[in-house]
Amino acid sequence: MEDESYLIPVKAELLNQKPYVARISRYLFDMLTHSDAGTFRSVLEALDQMEQIPFSRPARTKPASQFRGPILGKLYKFHYTTTGFMRENILLHWNSKDNRREKDKLTEQFNNTARSYKSLEEAWKVAGKIARQVVDGYVTRGDSQKLTGEWIIYQEWNGQKYYLSLGNHSELKDEQALYDRVKAGCAEFPFCFP
Asked: Second label for 87, Cα 20 to 30 Å away, from 9, 12, 57, 140?
């Protein structure tokens, strides 16, 4: 394996001198430097939350957990979310069993307004109220730490978290391929793959 010590100051600079920089794989670092600004920011916020960095934003996603099964069960995941997942999180909130009754009321209110509004101004007021309620579903889901998104894949070793890769739900179709991809990309952390 080639000496990659030259990367430490580069990673430190790009990742704002975070104390966990040395525990981010080169593979994950490459993913981050090629990601859009929203993903970059969301992943760093999630890493700060996992590391309990003072003054980091509170987590709004699902708690960290270990993957299940014989292949991925050796690794852990923590969700990060971006604005690209707002629609999915809103749908998950309003389609949940707990919120169906409230969703039905909103739908009825919307349909009644669409059929019988007296003025365009009245219709816009009602539409604004409904939109606020719909978005409040997203906020409620976040306040309950239920937001979903994609994953930061990591491993715990000697009391530290080693951040290996990003992953997404569609990769679960072939768990072995996901495991092999992450392992191949993280040669500098062989202890993360028992």
From this structure: 57
Residue 137 has pLDDT above 80, yes or no: yes
Q: Say how many residues make up the chain.
A: 194
At residue 3, the pLDDT reads 61
How far apart, in Å, are the Cα atoms of 171 and each of 15, 59, 141, 144, 151?
A: 27, 24, 25, 26, 11
Range of the domain at 96: 85-143
Residue 122: beta bridge partners?
none
How confident is the prediction for the chain on average, in pLDDT? 89
What pLDDT score does 1 carry? 52
124 and 178 both lie in a single domain: no
Distances (CA, A) of 34 to 28, 43, 111, 152: 10, 13, 44, 15
pLDDT (0 to 100) of residue 2: 57
Is 20 exposed, middle or buried, given 0-12, 13-18 or 19+ CB atoms closer than 10 A? middle
pTM of the model: 0.84
Same domain, 77 and 14: yes
